[in-house]
Fold this sequence. Notes:
Blueprint: E1 2-8, E2 11-24, E3 31-35, E4 40-43, H1 49-58, H2 63-89
Antiparallel strand pairs: 1-2, 2-3, 3-4
Amino acid sequence: MISVSIFINNNPILTRSAVNSGRIDHETGGTKYDLDDGSVVIHDPSKGATKLAIKMLETIKDPGQIDRDFQSKCDAREELIDRMFEEDYGKQ
């Protein structure tokens, strides 16, 4: 098992863990690693743990982007509800 954590001011911000599944990717010959979020990365163990750690971190979606995506969806829904209300009841 391998875990990679990011700390800011001694506070853990993100952690990603993986387990070597023992399965081989037949296209690349790399080993498949099962990550804690359900995703899988393929890595050649001979390339070292640092390369694997980078691949693991690349699976993390930026929390700020998640917030912006969520806000965009909320804004779009609000606009849709406003338009539907105006169509049914006129402009208020």
